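Human: If only I could read C-alpha cells as easily as an amino acid sequence. Take your time, and here it is.
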Amino acid sequence: MVQVSASIPAELAWLIDLLTQTARYAEPALEELDRSLLPGVAALRPEIKARFEALWNDGIGGCPELLPAIDASSAVDVDAQATFAWFSTLPKHPAPRAELLSEPVSHRPRIRRRLRRLSSDVRVRRAYRNLLAEVWSLAGPVWERRGRTVVARSIEDWSRRVASVRGATGLLRLMPPRHPFAVAGRPAASALVRRRPRLTVAPIYFCMSGGQLADLGDHLLIGVPASAREPIRRTRDAAFVADRARVLAEPTRVHILIYLMSAPSGVMEITRALRMSQPTVSEHLRVLVAAGLVRRDRKGARRLYSSVPGKLERHLEDARGTLARWA
C-alpha cells in the first residue's frame, strides 16, 4: 500500500541532514539550496553542525535518528509545532527496538544509541528540539509562503503515479536519479518492500535532488523532491547529465571499462593488454572509480580494479531519467 503525504518532519530531516552531514554531497547541495529556495541556510551550517556533533559525538554524519525517533503516525504531520512538542517531553511508552532496515548495518548500533538517549533523557530531547526549531525559524516561513503549494501539487502528481504501482520494481521506475531507494538496487529494494509493504511517499520542498529513505518500523517513508521542475533545476540537471556523459565520452576509458567487465586486473595488466601507457590507464581509472563504475581492492600486495555490477546501468538510467523529467 502506497500513500502520498506532506511531512514537516521529512522537510526538517532533509535540512538537518544537509547541515550536519559529513559526506561530500552536503555542502554543494546546501549551497545550491541557499542560492535558490532558502537563502541564508548555508550560514547555519557551522553552528548547527558543531552543536549536533557535540550532542552525539559518535562519528555518524547526518540525522538518521530523526524520523525513527518520532511516533510513526506523526511522521507525516504538517504542523511543525507538533514535532517540537514531541521532543519537549519524554514519550509515555518506551519505543520498541528499531530495526533501521534502511540504514547501513554498521551504523545501526550507534543510531540505536541516539534513539535510546532521545527516549530517556529529556535534556537531550530539548536540545534536539531547539536545533530543529532554529532551522525551521528560517525554513518555516518559506515553506508556508511557497513550499506548501508546491508540495500540494506534487502530492497530486505522485498520487496519480503510484496509483497503478505494484511492488518494488514499479516504484523503482518512479524514483528520481540518485534516490537512495533506487541506488540500493532491485534486489535490496524488493527485500525492503517485502519487510515493509506499507509505504509513504513524501514530496519534500527543500529537496532538490536525490531523496530520503527511512524505516519507521511499521512502514517506509520515501522522501522525494517536490520541486524537481523548479527553474533552478535546469542548470543543475544539464550539468549532471553532461557529467554522466563525459565519463563515457572517452573511447579509451570505455575500452578499459569493457576490459574490466571480464575480470579484475591491475594497472600493469591493463597497460599490457590494451597497449596503453601506464599514466593514461591510471588517469582513466581514477575517473571511473570517482564515477562509481569501477572499484579498487587490495589482494595481498596487489591493487586490483574491477567493474561494479549494476552501476553502469544506474549511471545511464540516472542520465536518461534526468532528461526525461523535462519531457
